[in-house]
Amino acid sequence: MEGYCDFSRYKHCISFGFDCIQTVSKSISNDDHNRDWDYEKKEYVKFPSIVYNTVSEVVIARGKSEVGEVQLKHDVDLCCVLNIFMELNNVFLKAPQRVSKSDMLDNVITSEVVKFLQDEMNEWEKALKCSKSDFCYAFTLPTGWNYEIQEKLIRPLFISAGLISKYNHPDRLLFFTQLESLFRCIQSDDRYFYKNIEVEYGRQYAMCSLNFAEGEIFVNLDLSSAQYPSLTSIDSKYVPQSLKSASFKFPFELKEKQTRIKAIVEKKCDTLSLTNVHKLTDILTNEGNTKGLPQWMRRIYDPEGNFKISDEDILNLAPFQEFLNYRPFKQLQDLRYKKYSLENEEIRALKSITITDIYGEFLEEEAFFTDKLNDLFQNTNKAKLTTLMISFTKDYTKAHHALVLLKLVEKWLKSFDKQQGFYRLLTRVVKGPYEALSFQFGI
Fold first, then answer.
1. DSSP 317
2. Dihedral sign for Cα atoms in the order 111, 112, 115, 121
3. Which of 95, 166, 186, 246 is deepest in the core (most CB within 10 A)?
4. pLDDT grade, residue 39 (50/70/90)?
């Protein structure tokens, strides 16, 4: 094995990160000291999902589109894995109890991870016009995973893929946890985003990160303490010492928007004919889909400019109170058309509908979430805990119902803060009077 790692011999560092549905690889040039990183050399977001046949043990579909087509067949012999990387921890934990070395699912997962790494690096070689000998690597994995998985499973997979050699110095492949990445991010030079937080030695910090996939919400809660870096660190930024972690998921399957709106129309306008109910339902449902229209075709809902549902930034960053109390049909003039035969009282009722009216309160989910928070902060020293940060990835808010849950989580965390006083939520001003309670991070 090499005595030390000479990073100057590598032209690029390829970093890998993943969440419950996607994997991201990025290129950082080791020669570029101005941080002009090669992130746009290729499409670096992938969906490493697979479908395999449990009888033949053959993978029959890979990637988001292929897997989606196969899932429609509903074959009982087919098994779908949303992200092969998320399964690695299960593979590692089962290893000591495994009687036979030929565990079918585990073999499929590890083989597919090796194939994914090989295919990904083949693309990077073409994009950067380099060979594999020009790369070193960084791999970010979930905070709660067993530490030993790094050397006992993931490094051997990189070796099997031909990305590194067992004779290379270990630092050619560096490992980080998601908590370490987030902690470093809030101490970045970008003080616009994190100007409200100053990391202090010995203080405790909580992170709540959200992912959404296939009708389920994945939540990671991490409690950590700020510590000095090691003597060999390249800078003086604080590092997190993990104190407690919790990972859980719960179903969040919303009814179709049209179904929800139809129920509201029937409730608010009980004198309407069935035909007019269907017409109104279509009109109101389409009002919620203006986000995809060209700017000049979008309806301006609120003339005061306080909140426009077509503004993606405001959707993501608006305070939960503004979002959940927003009345999307307030300025809808079509309601006065004679063909709907609406009474003035019914028109006022429809215009008063809020986002909360459409989606509901989710009291059971709130109770479940609050129980997990209580477990995390049990026996915590309130004097040392200062800040809780909510984080989500860019793709999280592409699903409108996931965005609704993001605002509900903000509400639940704010309420828990007022009741228990364990933390203060980290905020930042984004537009005018708005303060964001959630922060978008890359994987």
1. H
2. negative
3. 186
4. very low
